[in-house]
Amino acid sequence: MAIYVSSGAFRVRTVPGVLEAATRLGVTHLELSSGLDPIADIEAVMPALLASGLDLLVHNYFPAPVVPFVLNLAALDEATLEHSRRHVRECLRLTGRLGGGYYSVHGGFALALKPELLGRPEAQAELARSQGMPDREAAFAVFVESLRLLCAEAKTIGKQILVENNVIAPKHLAIHPHNPLLICEAGEIERLFAAVAADNLGLLVDVAHARVSATALGFDPADFLRRLAPLTRAYHLSDNDGREDSNLPITESAWFWPHLAKGRDIVIEVYRLDDDAIRSQWALAHRILKP
What's 3-289's CATH class? Predict the structure, then answer.
């Protein structure tokens, strides 16, 4: 088990700035994630990444392209799907260069979203209502095929792909009562893994996503964590009120600690912290998980 801090925890938005801050604060494991400044050429920052001495993971939309797009491995339009698969292939190559064991990516979805709608459940619900019920089964089939292809490619370089559970918010379902987001609940995650049938596919459980989806869909988030433990390779940790994915700091009394499977990687995914708060969150996770 290793404990990482997400790049989203830092207030600087450049790769060199995050690397410097992590080193200065004593963080030894860093997940490179969404929210950093766009990078026109990854080679421009590779010397800093390779010289950092940090253990590095690549997650989802890193490196962010100059022209934004929506990363969706279940996309029903060919252009978005091909762009998404190409991004994942590039991330797998980057993972190999940085020495990480796996690359992690968000779950797919049936909606055709534009970048400005990401993270806005009410706007997504309005879009779903205007478009009509999206074809979840068709999107699920595309997602399965994407993961089969990409896991086979990842296996040739000795890497794993982790998929992260999506979050459906109660406010979304209050506007449009059909969920267009895949793998929010345990049954569909188990179905996905059975359909892909790749031994280098793992699950990244975002406990905050699980808590909000549990409120929206009416399941027990603790049961969700326990049930999916055999598939789980890593966790994203943050907290919220159960109604909105707000990436709040973790605390010693957080609901999820007793239900985490032992020996899995941990990523502290709390956003926009000052230096003292990053040190505190890092120390708390180590105190609880590595006493």
Answer: alpha beta
* Three-state secondary structure readout of the chain: CCEEEEHHHCCCCCHHHHHHHHHHHCCCEEEECCCCCCCCCHHHCHHHHHHCCCEEEEECCCCCCCCCCCCCCCCCCHHHHHHHHHHHHHHHHHHHHHCCCEEEEECCECCCCCHHHCCCHHHHHHHHHHHCCCCHHHHHHHHHHHHHHHHHHHHHCCCEEEEECCCCCHHHHHHCCCCCECCCCHHHHHHHHHHHCCCCEEEEEEHHHHHHHHHHHCCCHHHHHHHCHHHEEEEEECECCCCCCCCECCCCCCCCHHHCCCCCEEEECCCCCCHHHHHHHHHHHHHHHCC
pTM of the model: 0.96
pLDDT (mean) for 235-261: 97
Per-domain residue ranges for the chain?
3-289
Q: What is the pLDDT of residues 59-70, one digit of tens each?
A: 999 999 999 999
